[in-house]
Amino acid sequence: MRPKIYLFGDSITEESFGDGGWGASLAHHFSRTVDVVLRGYSGYNTRWALQVLERVFPMSSENREDAPLAVTVFFGANDACLPDRCSAFQHVPVNEYKQNLHSIVSFLKKRWPTTRILLITPPPIDEDGRLRHPYIDNPSNLPERTNKAAGAYSEACVAVARESGNPVIDLWTKMQQFPDWEKAHLRDGLHLTPQGNMVVIEEVVLKLKNEGLSLESLPVDLPLINNIDPIDPLKAFQN
Amino acid sequence: MRPKIYLFGDSITEESFGDGGWGASLAHHFSRTVDVVLRGYSGYNTRWALQVLERVFPMSSENREDAPLAVTVFFGANDACLPDRCSAFQHVPVNEYKQNLHSIVSFLKKRWPTTRILLITPPPIDEDGRLRHPYIDNPSNLPERTNKAAGAYSEACVAVARESGNPVIDLWTKMQQFPDWEKAHLRDGLHLTPQGNMVVIEEVVLKLKNEGLSLESLPVDLPLINNIDPIDPLKAFQN
Predict the structure, then answer these.
(1) How many CB atoms lie within 10 A of CB A106?
(2) Which Gene Ontology biological process is one annotated for this entry (chains A, B) (predicted)?
(3) pLDDT higher than 70, residue B62
(4) In degrees rounded to 5, what are phi and psi of residue B38?
(5) How many cross-chain Cβ pairs, A to B, lie less than 8 Å apart?
């Protein structure tokens, strides 16, 4: 059985197998070594994620041997909706967000002690993009998410990683180091362009490698064509 | 637990999560309903596939409830290598190819009687492309695959589908209906361009729909954001 990596998060995870998406890129990267399992839920915040944890990661009799290699936990973009704007129903206060993230990490660590938990902060917000591409009716003409608010949730996520001893990708900071990140990395002020997806996949591959999970270290599923003897191909399949 | 669709095949399956790939597109299409599981093995023919069937689809105690919705079986491009050219070690005679495909289908049907088996024929071959992009040393300067040979394997695959009562995508015929298919659909005379991948994904989605497997018929994993009441979001998670 191939080992698994779960991608758990909101829409930025759910749509990660679209064109140029970071989830598909990860599955491609590990195409002979790991099953990348998509568990993205558009619009979800950490409060809702906590409600569904047991259903997303059901306990099974095979559970122990079925421990995934890693789980990416990528929430905060919806928690960071402002409480007095058009997407207020998705808002979660930053202190609760922090506590919820800790609870998600604890749940996963308790279920699978050896599994690596890779936290990912919400991306930065291009407020102009959010006004140009509203998801719902927004009569106030004020962005429902701001970059400053996303930054506070990103900081909280980094703190959870530090406090729980898990790796983190500070996407909010990382993305803003690129020129024109607002339009180059975000297609609607929040969701990722192919170039934005590149930032995520490069970081995910790097962090997993730091955790010992790389093409160099993971066993390949069945003989590679280069290891099959052209003179006696069936020999490769005898073990 | 989400149901699964396995993609079983050669390099055209293994690389199907690359940019614009049909596997990633299928995973994206079913992002909240189905886990698309990659089981592509570059260079493999049906003779080698038979050798590894039990390892690719291991029997487990949970096997009955774990029956996948569907398996795509996409072999033939390597079997169709000519027996007197530079990739002869991958060649499998067309009669054996046909028998091997029958054996693969029987194995899957015996293991999981309700699982849909979707056969896919090899794509057509652009011989000029094969000479421009050799995979191994080719001193003869004759293509190791020809379109005519691929056509014979495609016909055999269609016959297996008919004889076993399973759906099939006749990719060899379908692709050649497009103008400039040689360069538009094939990047090296054999493997798919993004446009070639589009032909495959459209056909796969259509055939699965014909088998009753579509977004309309499959249950969604957890409440969609549009079904969450903004006034009382947690209500959606009570069942």
Answers:
(1) 12
(2) lipid catabolic process
(3) no
(4) -85, 120
(5) 104
Are A24 and B17 an interchain contact pair (Cβ–Cβ within 8 Å)?
yes
Torsion angles phi and psi, residue A186, rounded to 5: -125, 125
Pairwise CA distance, residues B39 & A31, whole Å: 8
Residue A52 to residue B237, Cβ atoms within 8 A: yes
Reported ipTM: 0.96
- Per-residue pLDDT tens for A17-62? 999 999 999 999 999 999 999 999 999 999 999 999 999 998 875 5
Counted domains in chain B: 1
- Mutation pick from B1, B7, B28, B64 vs chain A, by most beta carbons of A within 10 Å, is B28
Shortest distance, CA B14 to any CA of chain A (angstroms):
6
- A37–B28 C-beta distance less than 8 A: no
Nearest to A32 by CA among B44, B135, B120: B44
- Is B188 known to be catalytic? yes
Catalytically annotated residue among A170, A188, A214, A221:
A188
Residue A216 forms contact with B (CB below 8 Å):
no
CATH number of the domain that residue A160 is part of:
3.40.50.1110
The answer to whether the CB of B44 falls within 8 A of the CB of B75 is yes
Judge contact between B57 and B6, C-beta under 8 A.
Answer: yes
| Domain assignment of residue B17, given as a range | 4-237
Summarize pLDDT for A89-117 with one digit per residue, the tens. 999 999 999 999 999 999 999 999 999 99
The minimum CA-CA distance between B47 and chain A, rounded to whole Å, is 9
Q: B19 CA to chain A: closest CA distance, Å?
A: 6
Please give the structure tokens belonging to residue B102: 């029958």
* Contact flag A37-B38 (C-beta cutoff 8 Å): no
Buried b or exposed e, range A15-30, using 16+ CB within 10 angstroms: bbbbbbbbbbbbbbbb
User: What does the pLDDT look like over A54-87, one tens digit per residue?
Assistant: 999 988 755 556 899 999 999 999 999 999 999 9
